[in-house]
Amino acid sequence: MDGLESGMKLDAGDNRANTGINGLDDLLNGGFPSGSITLVSGTPGSGKTIVCFQYIEAGIKNGENCLYLTSDEPVPHLLNDARKLGFDFQSAVDNEQLKFMYLDIDRHNIHKEMEEEIKTGKYDRVVVDSLSPLTETPIWMVNNGNEVIPSSNSMTTTTLPIDSIQATRIHLRRLIGILKEDKCTAMVTTEIPEGSRDLSRDSISEFLVDGILVLDLDTTMDRRKMTIRKMRGTKHTLKPHEISIGERGISLL
Ligand SMILES: Nc1ncnc2c1ncn2[C@@H]1O[C@H](COP(=O)(O)OP(=O)(O)OP(=O)(O)O)[C@@H](O)[C@H]1O
Ligand SMILES: [Mg+2]
Fold first, then answer.
1. Superfamily name with CATH number, domain 18-252
2. Structural domain spans, the chain
3. Quick one: average pLDDT of 138-143?
């Protein structure tokens, strides 16, 4: 046990970060516990990125500093998607209240870059959308103990691959560890493969985070659902709530 599973950063009061989703704060005692990490998991197209947009928009309205790390979509695409849904982040980006950063997983020092940004940026809210590409990058051990991702360095170093499950664990622990050490309240996303009963693609992150929101699609009934699967320090219902996506994002019905 290295402390990662032992719970969120201590917060003397019961301060909460509002979620930005109509109706959800009431189900969560006001929002996500300050300093916590919430995993948003769901199948493709279930609304994970929209949940992130709403969380960031709420932070901006509160005057908080926000960081959006994206590994799925380049920043201009993401801003475009957001605009179509009625979220205009440009002015917050211009006045440096919000920073978008594209995580290019082919760069071997990507974790270091993330860590430095999170540590030096003094962010209140950090989003990582999504964890999956970051955790599926293999780690290769070099003789002197430095980690190197094969695409950037494998031609020039003697390497010893670690199997992929171990690599996923190492990446996740480091990533979650970075977020836990910071004062920010974080949101991370993960894809659940269609038909799977797992809570994350890697089957590990659900144990490392403080809260889990699961997004479901019922394609036959043309319905969407959100379930609060876990939220440390919070009494909450486990009942799935029907949601809809429209202009301005997700709302609980
Ligand atoms: N203006 C809109 N009105 C209603 N529904 C919308 C609108 N815009 C997007 N959607 C729905 O939201 C879905 C996309 O949501 P989002 O990008 O948050 O999903 P995701 O879970 O992040 O997907 P992925 O796993 O691909 O990243 C679309 O597939 C569509 O069903
Ligand atoms: Mg997405």
1. P-loop containing nucleotide triphosphate hydrolases (3.40.50.300)
2. 18-252
3. 59
